[in-house]
Design a protein that fits this description.
about 80 residues; mainly alpha; 2 helices
Length: about 80
Amino acid sequence: MTGQRGSGGSRRMPALGQRADTREIRKRRARARRQRRLARIDLALGLAAAIILTVLSPGLAITFLVAGLALIAVLVSSLIVRRRR
């Protein structure tokens, strides 16, 4: 025993700037995950609405037009979200 306490081997404490950078990276990653999850939910809701409209309505030609417009709106929304990043 050499009597050294708390040496911890080769572990070192990161500098204050590195900790702040790590926090910022974690925040950005969490924000990106949240945005991807919201985009998936948006797309799923659009697809579900299109399917429901197609199945439940009697006039298929009109339904396909409305469903197509809904899908186009969802795709445009997704593209706008991607461009903001």
